[in-house]
Amino acid sequence: MFKHKTGYEIVEPAHMLDLAHRNISCFNNFLHKPSIRDAFQSCVEHGAQRVVTSPFFLCPGRHWNQDIPSLSAEAAKEHPGMSYIVTAPLGLHELLVDVVNDRIKHCLKHVSGDADECSVCAGTGKCRLYNS
Prior knowledge:
The protein is mostly helical. It has helices at about 1-5, 25-30, 35-45, 60-75, 95-110, and strands spanning about 50-55, 85.
């Protein structure tokens, strides 16, 4: 969806955790692939001249300050001359308030019977009013 809406030619998803270097079960390993290293490599193979790592986090923290820049730098070492940037996390952007408010409004319309379930909730039965 991001690639389609933005027009960027090369878009690769990645997970911060490179579980190949950690002692974690195979099931969890499947959930955390591709790694930043794998995605970086794929971007280069597809002809990228610059790699942009954009963390899908709501606020800055250790992962944004240390882990992701470190993993990106490690991946870049395999591609001398390649430039890269780690962007700010999502939560620092004022338009995120509009996204959150849009989701709230839609869910409230759904529970009042004025809108269908969104694609996230469709079929889950989770988008409903609960009583204590």
